[in-house]
Amino acid sequence: MSLTRPDAAVPAPAVPPTGPPLPVPAATRPARRRRRLPTLGPRLLLVPALVAIAVGLGYPLVRQLVLSFQEYGLAQQFGRPAEWVGLQNYRTLLSDPYVWTVIGRSVAFCAVNAAVTMVLGGALALLLHRVARPARLVLQISLLLAWGTPVLATTTVWQWLFDSRYGVVNWVLAEGLGLEGMRGHSWLIEPLSFYLVATVIVVWMSVPFVTFSLYAALLQVPTETLEAAQLDGAGAVQRLRRVVLPMIRPVLQIVTLLQVIWDLRVFTQVHVLQRAGAPTRDTNLLGTYIWSLGGEFSMAGAMATIMLVLTLALTAVYLRSVLREEEL
Amino acid sequence: MTMLRTPGRRVLAGAGVLALLALTACSGDAAAEGGDGSTGRSTGGSDAAEITLWLNGTDTPQALRDYLTDTFAAENPGSTLVIEEQDWSGLVPRLQTALTSAEQTPDVVEIGNTQAPTFTYAGAFTDLTDLYEEVGGDKLLPGFVEAGSVDGSVYALPYYSGARAVFYRKDHFAAAGVEVPTTLAELGDAAVALQAANPAGVESYSGLWLPGQDWYNGIAWVFTHGGDLAVQDGDTWVGALSEPEAQEGLAEVQRIFAEGTKAPKDADSAEPWVPFNNGEAAMFSAPTWARWSIDLPECNKGVAPDDESEEATALLAEQQACNEEKTGVFPLPGLEPGTPATVFAGGSNIAIPAMSQHQELAKSLLRIMFGEEYQTMLAENGLIPANSDYASAMGDDPYATAAVDAALGAKLTPAAEKWADVEGDRILEDFFQQLASGADPATAAAQADDLITAALG
Q: Given B2, B7, B204, which is nearest A308 (Cβ)?
């Protein structure tokens, strides 16, 4: 796809995209590749990774695709022949308004969580960059601990904090701040406040990764450039917007991409909170909905495929620009 | 990349462990026979082998396990029995993987009674109809037999049942001037009266601890009024919560939700003894083994949990006696005085996987398990045995009496092929939570019925 790109590495004459393959890039690109991969060695080195990916990722993916076109439940698992049903599973799912509700919820949840995580993570990274060494150390250790705690443990602790009867949050609100209405308040029973609690947990666990990645990127920004900008009269905000952000953009993009993928397929936190007493049907996201289809492997497979397509669609813009960066 | 990998990985990890277990458990002839054992075909016969029994959780005490291994070895010279304990959580995905493989399957398997229909319909088990009369016939707990039957053939037999009973604080009842209720309606009145009196003088005091998602307890009101979760209409199952009988029961439940409990709407039946021990509830309903979790502060002797000295043991016995003196227990009462309510039965079924390569040895083990001696041992350990003839061995202390009374009328979830989907979708948790939040029972029930019908269809 890069052959017709005006910004490809090799300067190419502007031609309409419908034109025949360009002679110039076609001639130079293989030459460049040969320079990069002079022998067979590097290719051989790729083989273990490729095999691992094919076995670990390719096989389940193919199996999931095959399943999604069959009628495959527990009985088939025990030997009853699986019937091919074509697109029936997809038709059933996509004609169910509830599925669309779940997709809508998931996209909204993902957008809010990814945005909040990026903003908080970015702000903390800037803070890390500015503060003195002792403060930075404390901050880094705290972030590492929040990040390193297993997700189940974190979720359980937060769930206890928000417990309606014995939770600290309600206690502080009722006893400390005198909000009588919050005594015994059920945080999980209303979908919106359920998602608020879920967002707190998801963001809590995602921020450290974003902070560390962006902090590492910030360290790569040369101080000379910043000083030069300052000498030219750029203020702090201008330096951030015009100098720092463009320089760390590749990292920013890939971290956002990962965040969107992770937040779209969030499962553990939502599942645990549901089990803690939330109305399940009103709070299902894609992950937990697929889980609830568990006994019908074919339906779950179809739904997982829909989710895969959705993920690719949502991240296509980022993926394209990331790929482009790599080509440069 | 897909969410399926989360449950899937657990299955795979389980399979890995199973494969390891199978390496040690498999005997030479494991792969010799074909996989189709669904007709109970004899394999091996007198051939000596090692067979595997899966028991779930710690419900079956060690003495009973020892009895099984010893008796099995004595009755089947040269053969041995290995008992492997499985965890209840994650059991279904583990069985989905293990039972389909001749190399990995156990030879006899315990399964939760509400999970039994799903696997029975899927063809996971050997037909045991021939064995049915021999191991007890119609003496066996009928609801459990039904859960393990398809089209008149029995595939999964009852193992044991545990029933729910109501625990109550005698001092709270006395202080509030409330008598032990003798009918279901009186129980509702008692809960409301106790909560209004608040004899403990604590904030958010519950007459009866009934959290919003606790359908295991709440459904007893539906069952007792003659209602059901779903009924079979020809070939299809339809949700039955809108039926008038069910609605009568649900109205009573909703009254308790409104006036007889302060339990959170966003909690389930887990650990009801915590508020009870805190003096925040006068009653709670739970399986009778909950007696071991009652720990009132005024009785607590402060013994460290790992202290096994003689003194500590004596103190603990004193503490337990004190707890049981202050705590009463009665079976949930029925509509008429003296009759028990129809409660939700918990318990297990036991079956032989169709893939097992040792069908005859497995049957020999089942005969031992259904023998008088083992059934009596189950009863002596507080479990209601599969064969009701031996329930008398449970003794006549109030807990055993309450358990047996409750179990006599207990009812199971519908024996529908896809009942597991209803539980997987958590339709009933959501439904009872709506009731607890004050939803109109008729509207909420109509909605839940549609979801149940769709899930079972």
A: B2
- Contact flag A294-B121 (C-beta cutoff 8 Å): no
Q: How confident is the model at residue A3 (pLDDT cuts 50, 70, 90)?
A: very low
Distance from CA of A185 to the nearest CA of B (A): 8
Confidence of residue A38 (pLDDT cuts 50, 70, 90): low
Q: Which two tokens stand for residue B131?
A: 């064995």
Shortest CB distance from A164 goes to which of B99, B264, B354?
B264
Q: Indicate the pTM of the whole model.
A: 0.79
Return residues 101-160 of A near B (CB < 8 Å).
Answer: none
Contact A280 B4 (CB under 8 A): no
Q: What is the DSSP string of A48-99?
A: HHHHHHIIIIIHHHHHHHHHHTEE--HHHHTTPPPEE-TTHHHHHHHT-HHH
Cross-chain Cβ contact A295/B434 below 8 Å: no
CATH classification of B164-344+425-456, choosing from 3.90.700.10, 3.40.630.30, 3.40.190.10, 3.40.50.1820?
3.40.190.10
Q: Which residue has the tokens 């291994």?
A: B69
Angle between helices B215-224 and B244-255 (to 10 degrees): 130
Cβ-nearest to A78 among B2, B7, B123: B123
Residues B266, A80: C-beta atoms closer than 8 Å = no
Minimum mean pLDDT among A1-5, A80-84, A251-255, A266-270: which range? Answer: A1-5
Mean pLDDT of A298-306: 94
- What is the reported pLDDT for A119? 96
Per-domain residue ranges for chain B?
5-161+346-408, 164-344+425-456
Contact B3 A57 (CB under 8 A): no
A236-253 residue pLDDT tens: 888 888 899 999 998 998
pLDDT in tens, B423-457: 888 899 999 999 999 999 999 999 999 999 999 88
Question: Quick check: A249 contacting B, CB < 8 Å?
Answer: no
SS3 B86: strand
Residues A14 and A6: their CA atoms lie apart, in Å, by: 7
pLDDT at B84 over 80: yes
A93 touches chain B (CB under 8 A): no
Strand order in the sheet with B50-56: B80-86, B50-56, B108-112, B346-351, B156-162, B384-385
B118/A281 CB distance under 8 A: no
Please, what are the domains in chain A? 22-88 (no CATH), 96-327 (1.10.3720.10)
Q: How far apart are CA A167 and CA A186, in angstroms?
A: 10
Residue A323 is predicted with a pLDDT of 76
Q: Are B280 and B204 in contact (CB under 8 A)?
A: yes
pLDDT of residue B357: 93
Identity of the residue in B5, B123, B425 whose CB atom sits nearest the CB atom of A280: B425
B8-21 pLDDT per residue, tens: 333 333 333 333 33
Same fold, B5-161+346-408 and B164-344+425-456: yes
Neighboring chain A residues of B35 at a CB cutoff of 8 Å: 79
CATH code that applies to domain B5-161+346-408: 3.40.190.10
